[in-house]
Amino acid sequence: MLQSPEILYIDDEANNLISFKATFRYRYPIHTAISTDEARAVLRSNPNIRVIFCDQRMPGETGIEFLHEVKKDFPLPVRILLTAYADLETVVDAVNKGHIFRFVRKPWVEEEIISSIEEANKFFITDSMLALRNDELQKAYDELDKFAYSVSHDLRDPLTGVLSAIKLGLEFDSVERIHEILALMESSVLRLNTYINSLHDYYLLKRGELTISDIDFKNLFGYLKSFYSIYTQNNHVTFSIESNQKEEFKSDETTLKLILHNLLSNAFKYQKRAHDNKTVRLSVVVEGGKAIIGVTDTGIGIAAGDLGEIFKLFFRGNDQAEGTGFGLYNVKSALAKLRGEIEVNSVEGEGTTFVVTIPSK
């Protein structure tokens, strides 16, 4: 059923205002105004008004003039003109030019007013949905433009590195120099592989369906501990895990791993290079039908001005490590699919903590 729309009725005759409100107040929320100036004040105070009725013969400005002008500041409400037979030619011309939705003859009939309101409400809902879809479509186009540019740029860079290394390698006979060139090529290929994996995650989040299964966080964290063991040993980072699962938890394991890998990857990559006690801590508490996951690091932290930007596509806040600009954007997209939330607390130069809350399916 359609929601009862709020109505604004404008007429310079007080008896008409009283009659209109008395007739329709049990069916619709009614606002009235005895002048167009008062009507503007009512509109400013009541943003949920959907339908405006205005008498054509208002002092100071006609109903057509008012309805035409008020659209500039209040474009959403549907505008209906009340008019006597003597004004029909002027009114029809205004309707044809699109200035108003329709007109109702005076003296009005209750059934015609109700019919006008119901049609206007349907139009309001359709028009509002169309405006919302247009906004979403524009955002999608903007993201696609940014996506296309970034992909072409970030794919070209490592390929250019490989080609440059090949050209250099062809000029050397020394095995040692060729090994150096191969190391450069390996670095470029690894960057390319990381980027392609991020693209794959991006695609899965946009297109993939969830596969719900029981999640054992002790086993999941054990897998993550093993996965990052070589990195932690080579870079002297302490990786501690703590799992406190008090009840069963159901979710999509692939999406959950994607979230954790991206958060942990950043936590390891952005450690302070000269720091003696590099630490990453991963924890979870499962109770009350939800999992609360924490990822804390002793890294370089995030600048206060960047905290509102870090989840945007292709945002890179620091050049300490190679990044694709997909990581935290993919985390946010993955959490949206799981109906989860994320909070971040960070002090630049001291470290960062992400807290993720995910309901059980």
What do these coordinates show?
- This protein is of the alpha/beta class and 361 residues long.
- It has three domains: 6-108, 3-Layer(aba) Sandwich (Rossmann fold), CATH 3.40.50.2300; 145-207; 212-359, Heat Shock Protein 90, CATH 3.30.565.
- It contains ten helices and twelve strands.
- The chain has helices at 14-24, 36-45, 63-73, 88-96, 110-169, 175-207, 217-227, 229-235, 253-269, 327-338, and strands at residues 6-10, 30-33, 49-55, 78-83, 102-105, 212-214, 237-245, 250-252, 278-287, 290-297, 341-347, 351-359.
- The strands form three sheets. It has a five-stranded parallel β-sheet with strand order 2-1-3-4-5, sandwiched between helices.
- Strand 1, helix 1 and strand 2 form a beta-alpha-beta unit.
- Helix 6 (175-207) runs parallel beside helix 10 and helix 9 runs antiparallel to helix 10.
- The two termini are 30 Å apart.
Structural class: alpha/beta
Unreliable spans: none
By CATH reckoning, the class of the largest domain would read: Alpha Beta
Number of domains: 3
Fraction of residues in helices? 40-55%
Which fold name is given in CATH as the topology of the largest domain? Heat Shock Protein 90
